[in-house]
Amino acid sequence: MNEPIKQAPVGIDLGTTFSVIAYLNENGRPESVPNSEGDLLTHSVILFDDQDVIVGKEAAKAMASELELVAECPKRQIGQRVFDKQIAGRRYPPEALQGWILRKLKLDAVRTVGEFDQAVITVPAYFDEVRRKATQDSGFIAGIKVQDIINEPTSAAIAYGYLSGWLDQKGLAVEKTRFLVYDLGGGTFDVTIMEADGRDFKTIATDGDYQLGGRDWDQRLIDHVADAFCDANGFDPRENSEALGKLIRDCKDAKETLSTRSRASITCAFGNSTQRVEITREQFLRMTQDLLDRTDFTVRQTMKQANLKWTDIDRVLLVGGSTRMPAVVDMLHGLSGKAPDNSLSPDEAVAHGAAIRSAMLLDHYSDTIPIQSIRNVNSHSLGVVANEIETGLPQVVQLIPRNTPIPVNSRRIFRTHKADQESILVQIVEGESKNPADCSQIGRCTIWDLPEDLPIGTPIEVKFGYMENGRLTIKVKVGGEDRRAFRYELKRPNGLTQEQLESWRQYISSAET
Prior knowledge:
The chain has helices at residues 57-61, 94-113, 129-141, 152-164, 214-233, 241-257, 281-305, 326-336, 349-361, 498-509; strands spanning 10-13, 18-24, 30-32, 42-43, 45-49, 52-55, 70-72, 118-123, 145-151, 177-184, 189-197, 200-209, 263-270, 273-280, 315-319, 373-377, 382-387, 394-400, 405-406, 408-415, 424-430, 440-447, 459-466, 472-478, 485-488. By secondary structure, it is an alpha+beta fold. It has three domains: 10-212 and 298-377, ATPase, nucleotide binding domain (Nucleotidyltransferase, domain 5, 2-Layer Sandwich), CATH 3.30.420; 214-286, ATPase, substrate binding domain, subdomain 4 (Actin, Chain A, domain 4, Alpha-Beta Complex), CATH 3.90.640; 382-488, Substrate Binding Domain Of DNAk, Chain A, domain 1 (Sandwich), CATH 2.60.34. Strands 1, 2, 3, 4, 8 and 9 form a six-stranded mixed beta sheet that branches. It has a six-stranded mixed beta sheet with strand order 15-10-11-12-16-19. A hairpin with a 5-residue loop joins β2 and β3. The protein starts with 9 loop residues before the first strand and ends with a helix.
């Protein structure tokens, strides 16, 4: 029997635009691992160049000349059946694209960390069960055993507390601290309110938008410059992949410039025409104000859900590279009356917290790293679809309301609607509406082996078990008999089968990254 690898604790922030891998060094401090190019941040971009698959900086550079061969931001589509862009005549599942990124991070980190096969991977707090499972599958494809799926704001809060002094040497909160984490990354946005008390980290409320991030601010600049070019020259540079790729890169650079300077210029070239567009910080703020307002609204809603006032919040923590935009800092300062805390790198804090979490889960670090209690909440209500008795119309029956502390078990009793019923279909949905059409179906299970001659109205107990890592288990009991209990792993409409996961794992492990 092989001895398990006595590895260093490893945490991975699998980001939309950039990813970071970190470990705990011999002094017990989290440290980001440079990739093979010498950078701490790895572009979450994949280039398919004939037989070669290239991940990172070179793939990002190729966006300016070979955009049609590049897959970027697969995290935004994780949980869908396939990535929405066909590359070199082939469609890829987002889990496989994420797998390539994770494998790149792993191979690069081994040079510094040594061999490892386990890691904690972070996800946005607002990710639903389907996206969490797909992220876990990405780790499997990359050859990584996922120790835990931890929410990005929770991970960042652990890092802030561990490194900034409001946790003592034993990892305990010096005093009860309540904080709001504002996490605006490249492609996702989260707001989470947490409380640290002794060794307990407790999430009070969370909200967010996995389709909002710095990429949307980039897009406003891209459209502004492209429209100006089109007005002056009569044709649209967005219709040419090479011109668009260069424009995307230049607009990202201009956004970063506007975080430190009051103006920036962007040059757009297409065909024989060149257009130089100047943009001021004030103009940029006006054209993106609605995006900022969406985050403002979410912050207010989260405070309302938590039933808190700003005087109840001790700290406002900034996470994610997009929080470098001055407008974000100004908005939060005006809203909360507190200067947001950006004392740690917003790009690295999440990975550092994940590495600390990894150490908590590794047995051979149990004597040196404090075991903290981390209690999260579910970000979406979970329920099943059932027919209403009076109308016969389908409606959603909630089993676990939004912002319920997890882990949690919940059960509801339903009844068969006809005699001699042969099967039961359990449809599991996430969402806040009673109308199934307004919710997301995350899975379904069908029970066929029902007893014969079941009378109408036979009780059917549906039990949900929602785990700390956001994964869901289901148990269905027919007629109140334990011997008629069925435990199911969800059948997800867009998920990969185990055979497909094995196939992608083998394919990616045999390819050079």
